[in-house]
Amino acid sequence: MADDYRRQGFELERRIFDLDVKCSSLKAEKPDDDYLQNAASIIEKLHSYFRHGGESSTLSKLLQDYTQVILDITFFEENRLVDLEFPEECSPAKIQQLLQDLTEPEVLAGRLAPGQEVQSVLGLELLECLYWRRGALLYMYCHTLHQRKQWIKKNKETFLKCIQEGVRYLMRMLQVRNSVKLSDGVVLHDTATANFLSEGVFSDTHLLTMMYIGEMCFWAVKYEDCSADSTERKEDRLQFRDIGTQILHKYNLRLLRQRYFSSGSVSETEEQHDALSGFLERLPVDLQFLILTYLSPADLCLLGGTCHYWRGMVRDPLLWRFLLLRDIPFWKSIDHLSMPQLELLDAPLVDSEESLEDRVEGVDNDSKVDYMSEYLRGSPSCRQQWLPTSAPYKVVTSFFQSLVASAEPRYAMFGPGMEQLEVSFVTKLMNSPDLLPVSVSGTSHRKMHGIGSGITYLFDNQHKFNILTLYSTNRAERERARMQQQNVDNKLFTVELNAGSEVPTFSPTPHVQQVCQAVDGFIYVANAERADGSENEPAQVRALLSSAWGSTSRPLLVLSCVSREEPPTPHRVPCIHMAKRLELAALENPWMVQDVAADSLSGLLDGLSWILSPAFARIWPDSCSAGTPGSADWSVSAPESLRSASIMIKAILIFNNHGKPRLSKFYEHYSEDTEQQIIRETFHLVSKRDENVCNFLEGGMLIGGSDYKLIYRHYATLYFVFCVDSSESELGILDLIQVFVETLDKCFENVCELDLIFHVDKVHNILAEMVMGGMVLETNMNEIITQVDAQNKMEKSEAGIAGAPARAVSAVKNMNLPEMPRNINIGDISIKVPNLPSFK
Description:
Blueprint: H1 2-29, H2 34-52, H3 59-83, H4 91-112, H5 118-122, H6 124-145, H7 149-154, H8 156-175, H9 191-198, H10 204-224, H11 240-255, H12 266-276, H13 285-292, H14 297-304, H15 308-314, H16 317-327, E1 333-335, H17 371-378, H18 392-402, E2 410-414, H19 425-430, E3 455-459, E4 463-469, H20 475-484, E5 493-497, E6 504-508, H21 510-518, E7 521-527, H22 537-544, E8 556-562, H23 575-581, E9 591-597, H24 604-612, H25 622-626, H26 631-637, H27 640-643, E10 649-656, E11 661-666, H28 672-687, E12 696-698, E13 708-715, E14 718-725, H29 730-748, H30 753-758, H31 760-770, E15 771-772, E16 775-776, H32 781-798, H33 804-808
Parallel strand pairs: 2-4, 2-7, 7-8, 8-9
Antiparallel strand pairs: 1-9, 3-4, 5-6, 10-11, 10-14, 12-13, 13-14, 15-16
């Protein structure tokens, strides 16, 4: 026994001497480090013990002190590695050495005290700390490696092996102590604490351990499927998906619902949670999406304003892409302002060239296409909300203009829809006095050779306008072509074939050129019963609207016409497809496509109100809004805040005095590179302006030039810039910026630039309460703050321990050790704990 004691003492003394040398060398680098000083004091106490001799009964205490020295020294070395962000050259060897050092106390205890269990020699808390430190070290290393995508591609097996070892150490840490059974004579007045203990959660570190395991399993699942050439035996590998699901299921469902040590009973807490949760939230996600597809756009916007969860649901790009594909064929009208980008419907939601390995966690990886904005801008039911409001001075100008007699506006009407349909559109138009009476007292127009003077109609019983009808050929040829369903040789144009090209070039004949120079706009009657149409249609439309014959500001109304409204024409070409067929998006002129039936002329007045609005300013916005299909339905179903909102915001940018963006929100699709160029261009335009000049200017070329303007405010180190339609009120937008800033100031208590950096999610939530899809929803600061506070309370109730990582590091080093202070807070721990995205 004496020999065994001397052998144990000699081996332990030799190891303590080695630690003394190592600690002295590290103290030379940083003499004032608290952990190294603590280690040195324990080593000195152990040296004194061996100099004066000791009893064998103190072996357990010696091993605990020895373990504490190793924890102190390795903690200093780990911090140094974290500060250097794990250099690639030396990190693998250094981490291997640290793992061996942290394993040594457990091995030494088993060898020096073979008759006792290791946990009885070292103590439960020290043994847990040894496993925790090894697992946390590997987690920190893997977290750093996870940002090095190129390194992982070359060393995927090494990365997965580190994850596997880290998960094993952390799992062992959770298994050191058994769960407390509440039926074993344990009496706790705090029921929530009792439930934590029954789940095996004894400290904040146990919570953080489960979060680390979940995140490491998530990384492993991402890369494991791509690593089919693994040399490790399948039975030796961990089932990361099962482990991660099990741990995080326990973490979320069993712990978060307790509201983090709430004083109420578990049953009361669950009853309150169930009372707060709506019926819809408990439905499966796929069923929730099915229900959302039956709601109107206005109802979806209202639902998105109820809570953070539904805001995310109603903004899902897959939902709005489905709604676009489903509803586009049924839209009755579309124009140059509301035309959605059809090519985006064929674009994948996730870039096919972007692998899971390239997607950065913590960064918004959603679709770059804002399908919601595309739908809201294009749908007739809510299109009116996107129309810019008229400036106050324009109302006065329109009034004075109405007092001055002006010539009747004149329009040229042409197209195959006048000639190919079974029901004659022109004949029905001339014989509908109850809908559009013919005026016999109109202003005398000059008669044009081969065309005539046209017919004057009375719109809304007060507005006269003249239509010149241009037929492609004589009546006999038109009728023969209609019966044989053939295209006629259009005599309105002369055709030239370019040398070396089979594409014809169309030019209006001289008398048609004369018409094009005299009219104020064009009406094209398209045949919506033919799915293909003539391949020459786009070229012929461009030829008549050419800038050589007049201004490009003259409007084009396309009447997408069928013969009969009832029964509905099968395979009718939707108006949006008609716009694509005629290539209207390439025109410089304003245009609109309106569905019309020749037998009833349904939809005609809606189209006429649009094309007449520039000529008769008094029609706009009353008549024109009435002429926007579905606008009346929207105004009834939408709340007051939506009915009054018509501001069209293209982008909201916040950057500092050096041009560093702190928030960017675009309500129109741009590529990522273009967005960065817009930010740089906007900063260049705004930052060079003198403080004594006004706070608005014309937009940059990349964002729309003179059609948009930049309205901004400069607060200390930050610029708040709104890019809005050129017709918007500057003072109104400046007030909106002020409301936004004051709301931020109240929510963050003296907001500064750092708040926008570290709480970007909360800033986006505040902004979303004010603006959605480019439309202003709310300007009352109290209402905005109330909604934000309600969201925060709901998030806290659903994730009561979301702040656990900030508190959990309190047990990284000292876990209720004997003779050690227990009031350790986060300030005592210098190890860097990164933000953890949730495991999904």
